[in-house]
């Protein structure tokens, strides 16, 4: 029983290993794990999917892969115990997965699964037949089984030629040796299967990798190039967040366990749904359109008060209002559901993409092609909206629709359908719990209210009056603004608070709110000790 289960597991591992190796060499779409994973994600009951995302967060896909492997091992073990009938089980499962692969990516995508299953079945039959001749495949203890059982099923006991077999004991030990050989073979097959599978995955990742392509991309010149840091935008106060966030320091949030690798050869943007004229733009089609450059501060709805899921970059791209106008949205449409290459979606108000603000299909970030993790080759950047409702990376589709017809990824999971960025500020320096000397201390940070702008920042020490901070140059309503308040620190423990006022004259709310459903709020506070 245990030996047979081991045979089944070896067969299963050989099946998956062979298939993954072939998928790595031939085509990623044929990976049975990927085919099955996509099918599970697509057809899982909503409740289960929500539970998985809530429980495992962005690791949900990794958990899915591990769960699938565990199930595969269990099913294989059962198939092994079933012996020859187990081969039929493997064949049927193989046909099912091959069929899913064909449905998802064409006939060619079935090759890895078909060859993998054939290899697995071969291993299973080889092992099952041999185990039968060595004593039914029960526990590994030779002699513990009635001699003659092998004969009863009609297979001869294999013995080494020339060996003198004297009676039962010698027969048992020959069978024992043969069994050990079979088990050793199974262990070898399992090991080889694992190595093949890992090699296939590594090869696939290497083949799909677009970083080489990215390095060779020439970005179009923008109409009015911008400096990285407009004059006066950076106060250079020690400890303050720099005005421009370098790509390497830019926060990253997405649901992808492996970063999607989308080649410009395969990339296209389809604008469809409630439009007069559906259009599909390929990479080469972009070149004939004017490229613009804009500084925009991106923020994540999950950013807690005082958190760092916010960054400011110089984005190069194409105006979304112009691209949408080419497709001519129909009256009644009020949402653009943007889709990514990895199946993620965001729902943005059509108005926010067409009201004249600098909503972009971005292809460049701080003078470079988009980093792969930030959406290469193209993503959306919309001033004033949290990333989860606007900033689709690896974007492939703009579906013009209505809020009462479509629901985006995070909205299905309880986050608000609309996500305008709340006015906020952060104290960068002094650091929390800092020990300071009495005297002049620069209290400084950044404040943001994208698309409304920042008009003022005030600082409060303990329960004192709110004092005006000095603001850095006003670059645009769409980027954050640095501020500094020169504090005359006195000995003792103190709490520093800050609050911002937006360009409409509205002070940020003091009401403390958690990030879900539409963004955290409340004044940031820093506790320090002076003296
Ligand atoms: N394809 C895809 N795009 C996505 C996401 C995602 O999970 N998948 N996350 C969004 C969220 S929640 C945010 S805050 C921004 C973050 O962009 P960044 O990683 O470039 O900082 O990307 C958005 N775009
Ligand atoms: Mo986000």
Structural write-up:
Helix 1 (2-25) packs parallel to helix 8. The strands form four sheets. The chain has a five-stranded mixed sheet with strand order 2-1-10-5-6. With 531 residues, it is of the alpha+beta class. The chain contains 13 helices and 19 strands. It is 35% helix and 21% strand. Ligand MTE binds at residues 250-255, 298, 300, 340, 342, 344, 374, 387-388, 391-394. Residues 250-255, 298, 300, 340, 342, 344, 374, 387-388, 391-394 line the site of the ligand Nc1nc2c(c(=O)[nH]1)N[C@H]1C(S)=C(S)[C@@H](COP(=O)(O)O)O[C@H]1N2.
User: Could you give the count of β-strands?
Assistant: 19
Instruction: Give the count of structural domains.
Output: 3
**What does the overall shape look like?**
elongated
In terms of per-residue confidence, which ranges show pLDDT below 50 for 5 or more consecutive residues?
136-166
Strand order of the largest sheet: 2-1-10-5-6
- Describe the main β-sheet briefly: 5 strands, mixed
Category from helices, strands and their pairing:
alpha+beta
Bound molecules: the ligand Nc1nc2c(c(=O)[nH]1)N[C@H]1C(S)=C(S)[C@@H](COP(=O)(O)O)O[C@H]1N2, molybdenum atom
Report the radius of gyration as a whole number of Å: 31 Å
Query: What's the N-to-C terminus distance?
Result: 74 Å
Mean pLDDT: 90
Assign a percent range to the helix content.
25-40%
Number of helices: 13
Strand content: 15-25%
Protein name: Molybdopterin-dependent oxidoreductase
Pfam family, one: Big_7
Keywords: Membrane, Transmembrane, Transmembrane helix
């Amino acid at each position: 029983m245990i030996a047979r289960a081991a045979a089944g597991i070896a067969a299963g591992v050989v099946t998956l290993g062979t298939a993954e190796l072939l998928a790595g060499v031939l085509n990623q779409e044929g990976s049975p794990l990927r085919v099955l994973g996509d099918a599970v994600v697509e057809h899982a009951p909503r409740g289960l999917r929500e539970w998985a995302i809530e429980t495992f967060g962005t690791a949900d896909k990794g958990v899915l892969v591990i769960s699938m492997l565990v199930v595969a091992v269990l099913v294989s073990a059962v198939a092994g115990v079933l012996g020859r009938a187990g081969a039929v089980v493997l064949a049927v499962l193989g046909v099912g997965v091959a069929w899913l692969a064909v449905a998802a990516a064409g006939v060619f995508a079935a090759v890895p699964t078909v060859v993998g299953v054939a290899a697995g079945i071969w291993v299973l039959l080889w092992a099952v037949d041999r185990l039968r001749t060595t004593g039914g495949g029960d526990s590994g203890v030779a002699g513990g089984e009635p001699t003659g059982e092998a004969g009863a099923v009609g297979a001869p006991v294999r013995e080494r030629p020339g060996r003198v077999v004297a009676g039962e004991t010698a027969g048992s030990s020959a069978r024992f040796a043969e069994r050990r050989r079979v088990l050793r073979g199974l262990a070898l097959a399992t090991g080889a299967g694992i190595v093949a599978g890992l090699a296939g995955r590594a090869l696939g990742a290497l083949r799909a990798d677009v970083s080489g392509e990215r390095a060779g991309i020439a970005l179009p010149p923008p109409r009015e190039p911008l400096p990285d840091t407009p004059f006066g935008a950076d106060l250079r106060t020690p400890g303050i967040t720099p005005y421009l966030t370098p790509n390497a320091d830019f926060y990253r949030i997405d649901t992808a366990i492996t970063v999607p690798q989308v080649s410009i050869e395969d990339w296209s943007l389809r604008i469809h749904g409630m439009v007069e004229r559906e259009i599909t733009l390929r990479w080469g089609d972009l070149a004939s359109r004017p490229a613009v450059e804009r500084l925009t501060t991106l923020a994540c709805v999950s950013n807690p008060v005082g958190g760092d899921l916010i960054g400011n970059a110089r984005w190069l791209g194409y105006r979304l209002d112009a691209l949408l106008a080419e497709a001519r949205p129909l009256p009644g449409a009020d949402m653009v559901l943007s889709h990514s290459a990895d199946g993620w979606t965001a729902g943005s108000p059509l108005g926010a993409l067409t009201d004249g603000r600098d909503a972009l299909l971005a292809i460049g970030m701080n003078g470079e092609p988009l980093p792969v993790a930030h959406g290469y080759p193209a993503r959306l950047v919309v001033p004033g909206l949290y990333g989860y409702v606007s900033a689709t990376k690896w974007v492939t589709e703009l579906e013009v629709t209505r809020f009462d017809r479509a629901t985006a990824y995070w909205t299905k999971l309880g986050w608000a359908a609309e996500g305008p960025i709340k006015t906020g500020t952060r104290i960068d320096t002094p650091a929390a719990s800092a020990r300071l000397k009495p005297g002049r201390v620069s209290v400084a940070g950044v404040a943001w209210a994208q698309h409304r702008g920042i008009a003022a920042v005030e600082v409060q020490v303990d329960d004192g009056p709110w004092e005006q901070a000095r603001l850095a140059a006003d670059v645009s309503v769409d980027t954050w603004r640095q501020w500094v308040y020169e504090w005359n620190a006195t000995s003792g423990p103190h709490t520093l608070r800050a609050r911002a006022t937006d360009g409409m004259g509205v002070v940020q709310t003091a009401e403390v709110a958690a990030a879900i459903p539409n963004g955290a709020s409340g004044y940031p506070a820093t506790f320090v000790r002076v003296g």
